[in-house]
Amino acid sequence: MSQLLDLSTLADSLDDAPISDLVQQIIDQAIVDRASDIHLEPYQDKFLVRTRIDGRMTNYGEYPPRIAPAIVSRVKVLSKMNIVERRRPQDGQFTTSFQGRQIDVRVASVATINGEKIVMRLLDSSRPTVELSELGMSASQLVVFERMFSANNGLILVAGPTGSGKSTTLHSALKIVAVEHKNVVTIEDPVEYVVPGITQIPVHEANDAGFAVQLRAVIRQDPDIIMVGETRDVETARISVQAALTGHLVFSTIHATDAVGAIYRLLQMDIEAHLLASAFRGAISQRLIRRNCEACAESYVATSAEKKILEINNLASDQLRKGRGCPVCRHTGYRERVAAFQILESNEFLSEFMVTRPQPTLFRKHAMEAGMTSMEFEALRLASEGVTTLDEALTLAVAHDIA
Question: What per-residue confidence (pLDDT) applies to 13?
Fold first, then answer.
């Protein structure tokens, strides 16, 4: 492949370069920079291209507003969207090739006061899954994680906001469970990683083949283990619980603030507490923080304030590191991300307690007594081990955890 153009010079050559080439160059550069999303944003006096890299928005360049309609139309053509419709939100997708890899691009458009804004999400289904030891869990968390996912049956929930790495965690778990004598089936929207030896089913909401429909069909396929990409509705939640109660190991992602919140999210969907208590095996919640760039990270002596924060949490301060910034990390000091986890494993007491539907704060208190730690603490632990900076870890920390 030819060398990528400098995006800062593209605006000067718009009259010579076809719009299709410009769009492809933006996508290719975003792939090189490991971006997860590309934002094409029209404003009255400019057309802004931004990307999300390691969770942070980055400006790629500002261009004349006159090119916005042509670029938007090109992306809509690629993703088979209606180029005439400019007022209603639309969704689409297409596939692009980069250095022998197939990249799936999910596209969403929305009308703004200055024209249509486009967001493209880049999904590399060919990238290898992350090893469990590289996810960011402590040694004790890893033991609990492997024990939960090695169970013969039950329901395991993975909670967190969009883009928090839930799918990566689940696919890493598949390496534990996907053995020759097990029938493993996943239902995903979209299929982000291709895992050899398991059956992966994409969701097609538009064709009345959503999670609930596919899950009901999968149960008739003699599965041992079922991964549900997301529990979005009551029907999917109810079928998942029933499947877990009838001898299947079911794990699914769900939008909740923490591991305890995942339980109460299902209770809010009117899942009976006694059924959930019987099916529930555990919950994992996670957030992503930026990892130190290994090419430029250096050790440093902690300040008195940093030592105090770590000492309060019984953590050492002699391994702190931070990146000085280099071309590898685009002079940010960070490259890639790591997850801070909160893991809740059910036990007999918590199951019986769940049936009473206690207040979340009280259930959380008992879960902490049973060994669950907070994500804030785990982020500080990662900083104390030199994986990330203390400043980055403190983006997750709250006052009562460090004061």
Answer: 52
Give the pTM: 0.85
The DSSP string of 291-348 is EEPTTTEEE-PPPHHHHHHHHHTT---TT-EEE---GGGTTSSEEEEEEEEEEEE--H
Q: What is the pLDDT of residues 67-81, one digit of tens each?
A: 999 999 999 999 999
Task: Give the span between the Cα atoms of 282 and 294, in whole angstroms.
Answer: 34
Residue 295: Cβ within 10 Å count: 13
The Cα–Cα gap between 261 and 360 comes to 7
Cβ–Cβ < 8 Å for 256, 159: yes
Contact between 26 and 49 (Cβ < 8 Å): yes
Strand ranges of the sheet holding 225-228, from the earlier edge strand across to the other edge: 199-202, 184-188, 225-228, 249-254, 154-159, 280-292, 334-345
Q: Residue 151 gets which letter from DSSP?
A: -
Distance CA 210, CA 223 (A): 18
Rounded to an integer, what distance in angstroms lies between the CA atom of residue 116 and that of residue 275? Answer: 47
Which of the 8 DSSP states describes residue 243?
Answer: H
- Report the C-alpha gap between 245 and 230 in whole angstroms: 19
Report the chain's C-alpha Rg in angstroms: 23
Strands (E), 45-114: 47-53, 56-63, 90-98, 101-112
State which residues of the chain have pLDDT below 50.
1-5, 7-8, 16, 398-403
What does each C-alpha distance from 349 to 58, 277, 354, 369, 370 come to in angstroms?
A: 48, 10, 9, 11, 9
Identify any residues that bridge with 184 across adjacent strands, giving them in sequence order: 225
**Omega before residue 223 within 30° of 0, cis:** no
Task: Classify 265 as helix, strand or coil.
Answer: helix
66: which DSSP letter?
Answer: G
Structure tokens at 231: 């529990």
**SS3 (DSSP) at 63:** strand
Name which of 106, 118, 116, 158 is nearest 137 in CA terms: 158
CA distance 65 to 46: 5
Q: What is the pLDDT of residues 379-396, one digit of tens each?
A: 999 999 999 999 999 987
Count other C-beta atoms under 10 Å from residue 114's C-beta: 15
Position 162 scores a pLDDT of 84
Q: How many CB atoms lie within 10 A of CB 368?
A: 14
